Amino acid sequence: MELAFVIEKVVLVTVIFLITLGIAAYSTLAERKIAGFIQGRVGPHRAGPSGMFQPLADGGKMFFKEEIIPAESNPWLFIAGPCLALLTASIGSAVIPWGQDLVIGDRVIQLQVADINVGILYIFGIVSLGVYGIMIGGWASNNKYSLMGAIRAASQNISYEIAMGLSLIALLMVTQTLSLRGIAEQQAGFWQNGWFSWNVFCQPLGFLIFLVCSFAECNRTPFDLPESENELVAGYHTEYSGFKLGAFLFSEYINMFVASAVMSTLYFGGYNFPFMNHLGLSDNVVTILGVVFLFAKIFFFIFFFMWIRWTIPRFRYDQLMNLGWKVLIPLSIANIVLTGIWITVKDLM
Prior knowledge:
Blueprint: H1 3-38, H2 54-64, H3 75-90, E1 102-104, E2 107-109, H4 119-140, H5 144-175, H6 180-186, E3 191-192, E4 195-196, H7 199-202, H8 204-217, H9 229-232, H10 242-267, H11 283-309, H12 317-348
């Protein structure tokens, strides 16, 4: 393995990790600002100009606050829970293609940490592991409210992962690949061969199901039953404080960022943008513009996550389960059947 290749990957991993942390940190500020705007108030505005240093103040508070471990808890698992949640959230972005290849001298740099041919399976594996951090943290706390929140998280994730997986089967029938880069490349530009090339146009129902399931997988309102402050105090992290509480909260925003990136890649062209191949610009400039457009799509979905939180009330637990098992799963199966019929008719024509 070439040393230059290793250096490229180390630099790329470091840059993506820092960007992920930065976006997650300032998503907390954006959340409070958007909530303030919707509710007719200002939001954080004291720490720095317009509250720009508020995430740093919150992070400092979490870092320096006293670490409390309940006497009756399992101390090792109590610490391992938030660490696992933060780890699984952070490594989900490894297979996301952030742009086309960047050419510097005689080096071709791929803006993707790992281009594996089963990228979607990797994402699903990471999503499935994420709930273990919540379960371990809730159980190790030795608190009935924490345990109840953890059990809710597990049952919610299992329920909505099925519908999410079925919605992606229809997409895979269209794309014929599990590689995220392959799916992104198939959506080149915006208009191709007399048809819209972005997958959202041929899979609108699949995208809607995937979007709803993403809210549930990220424990975001109206599917934030694992936390549900009004019912379970603070859910699975009731006994947590300091840095460990910050890790749980931080992992939620990282999951939201990764989910937005995955939706943008699967259904909205990823780094592709309209008329990208007809601008007459150099390949590197087009690549940089593609990265900018991808992050613009990601920021839109992050805003959408926050907008929904402060607009729609939380479901009851029975409503949550009914929606997952009785509505989304049948709809995703119907979407698979409709996609098969559409592909068959298209091939016959």
